[in-house]
Amino acid sequence: MDERPVNADTLISEIEGHLLAEAARAESRAAAEAFAQRLDWLTPAERAEVERLYAEDHLSLTRQTWRHIAGRCLDLRGEYESRYRALRQRVLVGCLVGLAGAAASTVIVLAAR
């Protein structure tokens, strides 16, 4: 084991990732088994091969879906960060204009006395 400090958030994320991956594998195996059960004419060897191939395809599709979702999440994050920056700038400009207006009003009122 190395001497680097352990980051709890990173460790939790890694454990969560492993649990999700194992759940996806179990789901793929269960779907393959359910599919193969409907093919009652298969020999045991054929059934095992169908289950193996089906589970591989199912897991591959799951990975592809996760990659797509992760990519879309990154896209949305970028969009929201951009919109938040623009909104923050508008609020700041509005506040500065309001302060400038208040300062100008104060100067005019004081000059009128």
Task: Describe this structure as you would to a colleague.
The chain is mainly α and 113 residues long. The protein contains two helices and no strands. α1 crosses α2. The protein starts with 7 loop residues before the first helix and ends with a helix. The mean pLDDT is 93.
Task: Explain the layout of strands and helices.
Layout: H1 8-37, H2 44-112
Index terms:
88% helix, 2 helices, elongated, mainly alpha, 113 residues
Characterize the largest beta sheet: strand count, sense, and whether it forms a barrel: none
Q: What pattern of helices and strands is seen along the backbone?
A: HH
Uncertain regions spanning at least 5 consecutive residues? none
Distance between the termini: 78 Å
- Approximately what portion of the residues adopt beta-strand conformation? under 5%
> Could you give the count of β-strands?
0
Bulk shape: elongated
